[in-house]
Design goal:
With about 80 residues, the chain is α+β, with helices and mostly antiparallel strands. It contains 2 helices and 5 strands, in the order βββαββα. The longest helix has 5 residues.
Length: about 80
């Protein structure tokens, strides 16, 4: 469930957890002041640690079965005999 940031009439802010389908709040549930939802610079996705590439790649490239990549053409080989 996303967390939205709201600004009260007096300039203070608060956060509220709301489903995406729910309408934005019109008034502060604590003070009753009018509020507006503000856009923050929250990236939404945070990669922590050494990086996702460490888990997905090795020294030979993307991880996966080499046989799978050879079957990408459906197993049909073209050539003349």
């Amino acid at each position: 469930m996303p967390t939205y940031t709201y600004r009260r009439e007096d300039g203070s802010t608060f956060e509220a957890d709301q489903p995406i389908t729910e309408d934005p709040l019109d008034t502060c549930p604590d003070t009753g002041q009018d509020v507006e939802r503000i856009i923050t610079d929250n990236p939404g996705v945070i990669f922590k640690g050494e990086g996702f590439h460490v888990n997905d790649y090795d020294e030979h490239g993307p991880k996966g079965n080499a046989a799978d990549s050879n079957d990408a053409d459906g197993g049909a080989e073209t050539g003349t005999s």
